[in-house]
Each structure stands twice: as C-alpha cells, then as structure tokens.
Amino acid sequence: MNWRLMLLTFGTVFLAELGDKTQLAMLAFAAANRSFWSVFVGSALALVLASVLAMLVGTVLARCLPARWVSLGAGVLFIVIGAVLVARNLRPVC
C-alpha cells in the first residue's frame, strides 16, 4: 500500500467534505431524527459507494486515456458546473 497516497487522499477528501451540503444534510437528519447510528451508517455507506464508483470510472478512464486528459476533463467539468450554477443564480427570480 502506498501510505503517502492514502494519507494525501484522506486529507484531500476530509478537507473537501468539511462544511459541504452533504455534511449539513447529515446534521439536519441527525438533529431531526435523533438516531446517530442510522444517519452515520447511511451516510458512510453512501460515501463509500460514491467513492467506489468514482474509482471504478477513474480506473477505466486511466486505461483508455492519459492521466493528463482525465485531470483536464475533471477540471473542465468543474468549470462547466460552476458556470451553470452562476448563470442559474444570476437570473432574476420571478
């Protein structure tokens, strides 16, 4: 196991997840239902499944495309999603 890569991945995901919508939703679920373990297990399983799917897709893409293209594609996708969100929020609310 590549411990450096594992720690880098852990740190990146941990910092990226702090204060995001998922964490706030889990806070609301836990507060509304007072069932810590149900919310914890459900959210942990969801995060694990999402991570497994991302790694499977990444592994397939890595076999077909150079890593540089995959990184570039991910960056472009983030920019497009950001632009769509900005454009959607700039429209006047009726």
Automatic annotation (TrEMBL):
Transmembrane region(s): 35-57, 69-87
A GO cellular-component term linked to this record: membrane
Localization in the cell: Membrane
Keyword field: Membrane, Transmembrane, Transmembrane helix
Primary location: membrane
Example of a GO MF term: metal ion transmembrane transporter activity
Membrane topology: Multi-pass membrane protein
Record PANTHER family: TRANSMEMBRANE PROTEIN 165, TRANSMEMBRANE PROTEIN HTP-1 RELATED
Family: Belongs to the GDT1 family.
Protein name, per record: GDT1 family protein
Taxonomic source organism: candidate division WOR-3 bacterium
Lineage, broadest ranks: Bacteria, Bacteria division WOR-3
